[in-house]
Input
Amino acid sequence: MDTNPYVVFAKDTLGVTFNDIQLLITAFTHRSYLNEHKKSVSAHNERLEFLGDAVLELVTTKFLYTNYTDPEGILTNWRSSLVRTESIGAAAERYEFEPLLRLSRGEKRGTDRARAQILANSYEAVVGAIYLDQGYDEAERFITESLLVTFDEILKTGSWMDPKSHLQELVQSHDNQTPQYRIMEETGPDHDKIFTIGVFVGDALKGQGKGPSKQHAQQQAATAALKQYG
Output
């Protein structure tokens, strides 16, 4: 019995028997890992991520084109909701990618946001590895089972809309008003400002967000406010 954790993961979790398991190992190897293992490791996952991103977009586009007759603009928004960092990072989390990630000690102590990005990148890299080793059909099967199955929930919750658009639709429906965004605080020098923005419905503060740009802080505030609307 093969005890290589990547072989076991491939068979038991991905449903794939790799011809070249090194491809999968590389898919889980972050650039930072090479800095601490220069003598034993020669490749990281960024090229596989580049390939997987293209395969993911094609599979997702084909799925939407085949199953829905909506206009291009709607299909584009739906595709964006499926392939964005949060969606594919969540898929990687469900499939328990994290224990297999090869990271530097510093990256292992990184922020939640950095971790989410690394997980999303690894998902694309795994797609690339499956495509190279097994072909398009296997890559499509994996994407369908791990990601596209979430699309009904995305449609149901309206999360395919960006947070500001989604919040505006809900507020107008529930309160017959339009949410207003106000800067509550600015900190830091001009070249490195952090904005804190609140979103208000009437005089009620519904959510706050913080970020390096007004747009980013507004999106974070809208995301926080959406939680109040269930």
Observations:
- The mean pLDDT is 91.
- The first strand starts at residue 180 and ends at 187.
- Residues 5-156 form a domain with the Ribonuclease iii, N-terminal Endonuclease Domain; Chain A fold (CATH 1.10.1520.10).
